Amino acid sequence: xxxxxxxxxxxxxxxxxxxxxxxxxxxxxxxxxxxxxxxxxxxxxxxxxxxxxxxxxxxxxxxxxxxxxxxxxxxxxxxxxxxxxxxxxxxxxxxxxxxxxxxxxxxxxxxxxxxxxxxxxxxxxxxxxxxxxxxxxxxxxxxxxxxxxxxxxxxxxxxxxxxxxxxxxxxxxxxxxxxxxxxxxxxxxxxxxxxxxxxxxxxxxxxxxxxxxxxxxxxxxxxxxxxxxxxxxxxxxxxxxxxxxxxxxxxxxxxxxxxxxxxxxxxxxxxxxxxxxxxxxxxxxxxxxxxxxxxxxxxxxxxxxxxxxxxxxxxxxxxxxxxxxxxxxxxxxxxxxxxxxxxxxxxxxxxxxxxxxx
Length: 358
Prior knowledge:
Elements: E1 2-3, H1 39-50, E2 54-58, H2 61-71, E3 77-82, H3 87-98, E4 103-106, H4 111-123, E5 127-133, E6 135-136, E7 141-142, H5 145-154, E8 158-162, H6 187-191, E9 198-203, E10 213-217, H7 219-228, H8 231-234, H9 240-277, E11 282-283, E12 289-292, H10 298-307, E13 310-311, E14 313-315, E15 324-328, H11 335-357
Parallel strand pairs: 1-13, 3-4, 3-5, 5-8, 8-9
Antiparallel strand pairs: 2-10, 6-7, 9-10, 11-12, 12-15, 14-15
């Protein structure tokens, strides 16, 4: 089966023989009592990569988002949630709404709508917290975090970015190294943002291939989370295996990250050219999630591709729209994989058209 369902965008797999060994998988102690061995080296490395003062690890982004909003300095808060944000961040926001924190929504990129919402929160005596994804995988476009941050700073609030999709892909200086930039430090690095009001949360499971989460920001913010997070008290700390893999990811990114990103970009461009040459439009820009525009036929085409030995992702459209079919490209794919996939897709699409006409 030719697989286009993996989100290991850079192809980092961390085989056991290459990962630094560990003496014990876990200390048996919560992170609040003892940081797992090796965690400091990983957090300092990722903090530098993201351009933040400090960072700490979490077992998952769900663990971090569970109580992040409760430990932000400057309570009471009011949350401004970008519509379409990834569900895990939304779950954390919904938990706060359940205990009475005011929550409002704004459309992605709608600065005027966000500005109105921020004013409403301010008038209610709440310190605004804007929650947004760093990058929209459907369109491949980074969010206007620079504009969000300017508004947040004016209101003395916080900008919380779920950067899971962008970590490992986007990085600093995209003008000189378009379109991704260099380093893989994520969307804040891509925008060149450094601010005490900025909070970055992200999983390392996609770009860096490690099922581990990261919280990064100012030293004061990270320290507040470390001291007050209840998940660090009641949940297991990240395992030694995951921390060792994260160390390996940092080394791999330093040695071959730019090479992997360049190869990924070349494959994405080739994929798009192949489909466009066959008259099939595709969304996703230069991000690894590529979504051909297939209308209501996506589910049937997904099934036909599967029968042809090509695995793709079928996912729900937003706001009741028809399901969509996406190809997840990684640096491990080959040119022949792209040719087979696009040729098969074009044959299936043309066969359906011919059947309808007949």
